Amino acid sequence: MSHFTPTDLTRVRRVAQRANYDQATVHAIVDHAWICHIAFSLDGQSHCIPTAHWRVGEAIHIHGSNGSRLLRALATGIPACVCITHLDGLVLARSAFNHSMNYRSAMVYGRFAPLTAAERSASLDAFMDKLEPGRRAQVRMPDANELAATTVLALPIIEAVAKIRQGPPEDDEADLSLPVWAGVWPLETRFGEPITHHASAALA
Amino acid sequence: MSHFTPTDLTRVRRVAQRANYDQATVHAIVDHAWICHIAFSLDGQSHCIPTAHWRVGEAIHIHGSNGSRLLRALATGIPACVCITHLDGLVLARSAFNHSMNYRSAMVYGRFAPLTAAERSASLDAFMDKLEPGRRAQVRMPDANELAATTVLALPIIEAVAKIRQGPPEDDEADLSLPVWAGVWPLETRFGEPITHHASAALA
Prior knowledge:
Chains A, B: It comes from Chitinimonas prasina. The structure is a homodimer. Chain A is α+β, with helices and mostly antiparallel strands. Chain A has one domain (about 15-185): Roll (Pnp Oxidase, Chain A), CATH 2.30.110. Chain A is about 20% helix and about 40% strand. Chain A contains 5 helices and 12 strands. Chains A and B meet through β2, β3, β6, β7 and α3 of A and β2, β3, β6, β7 and α3 of B. β12 (about 195) of chain A pairs antiparallel with β11 of chain B, so a sheet runs across the interface.
């Protein structure tokens, strides 16, 4: 089992028992999400942008049009911070103060770098495999123009930390006898019924 | 119906038809989420931090311990960007290039300011009402020490924009005859069965 080394940026100071530097734990949180939020600063202004991501080995990959401001800014190698958060439940305690949330979050600090044309194709294949294994064999794969119009950036998952809270509320002992329901409302994200798109509708 | 005025920060340049400056639309996206991601920069380093939020009128509120680095930094009024994203589905097209995602995101730029002690209590009441209307009448409300230990910050929702994509894949016409399933896999977040916490378990 491999662990990340805490740094000034990733050392969790508050409620430090929620910190987790296990590589497999961070990777699982990254892999379980379809989108991340990326913080970066341009001309003194901070931005927080959501975008799709996938993991290739020990890096987070993102993509978009060559014209995207997000990608053009990040491609210059400015400091970035990627955060992925799964909200697993609301934690209802017997006192207002002890209410909490169950979650798994991963935070990765670093700088993105663009993939070369040769690397892009394999990375986009990995993205398609994440969406649906086997789908690559069915869809029309990118042609040269589409590939050339797409930027893919990679961020090494090295300066990284997970923060996790799970379990019941933690009430003060004096509050345990209060006549109020306490516990967890789990939150689940799942797929609903697929909505088929018929070619005839597109041509209509 | 009230609309936000696009600024240099909130004017959506790419796929501009996805932009929405309607106040009610932005508020609905904010209200539908339990957590937001906040980007800010300290000493040249960008941070992206997830935290619980709620809306009070025309402001986003967040809270935490007085000792929180996040809150202490934001309380100084540095530029911040809050993003809230709901991922509503994966959009599977007939070509790899036209795959997409359905989502509703809201982005708010601005500076947080701390609430006064007198304002804090009403704000935290609003947070509890968001969690469960009526719950305030049941739980033990914060005592003076708990209130004094809590920082609440407010960010005006003025420089704001929503970005929304909904609907089926948009394939190139030449791809419509390809023998591959296309459509949307909707993603839903819902509550599972509540998990009751028994006081006896806490005392055991």
